[in-house]
Design a protein that fits this description.
This is Antitoxin. It comes from Trinickia symbiotica. By secondary structure, this protein is α+β, with helices and mostly antiparallel strands. Helix content is about 30%, strand content about 20%. It has a domain of about 50 residues: YefM-like fold (3-Layer(aba) Sandwich), CATH 3.40.1620.10. The longest helix has 8 residues. The N and C termini lie far apart (about 75 Å). A hairpin with a 2-residue loop joins strand 2 and strand 3. A three-stranded mixed sheet has the order 1-2-3.
């Protein structure tokens, strides 16, 4: 896999080059010399987003602690069994 790095200016001047470079790997796009964006082929994007996670992995994701989740308590009532 080849990683290509382009400045925002280079991307604006030659979008076709950036799109072609995604065939070999991700394209890092920089703003003022710092990585700001990543351009991927659609196939690579699909590979990344179609990963199956188990519940433990999902709960361990960064930022999960910022999600508010307060489910209502289950109110389960039992009744005695009737045998005849």
């Amino acid at each position: 896999m080849t990683i290509t790095t382009l400045s925002s200016r280079e991307l604006n001047q030659d979008v076709t080059r950036a799109k072609k470079a995604t065939k070999d790997g991700p394209v890092f796009i920089t703003d003022r010399g710092r990585p700001a964006h990543v351009l991927l082929s659609f196939e690579e994007y699909q590979k990344l987003t179609q990963q199956r996670r188990n519940i433990a992995d999902a709960l361990a994701m960064p930022g999960i602690e910022d999600i508010e989740f307060d489910p209502p308590r289950a109110d389960i009532k039992t009744h005695p069994a009737e045998f005849e």
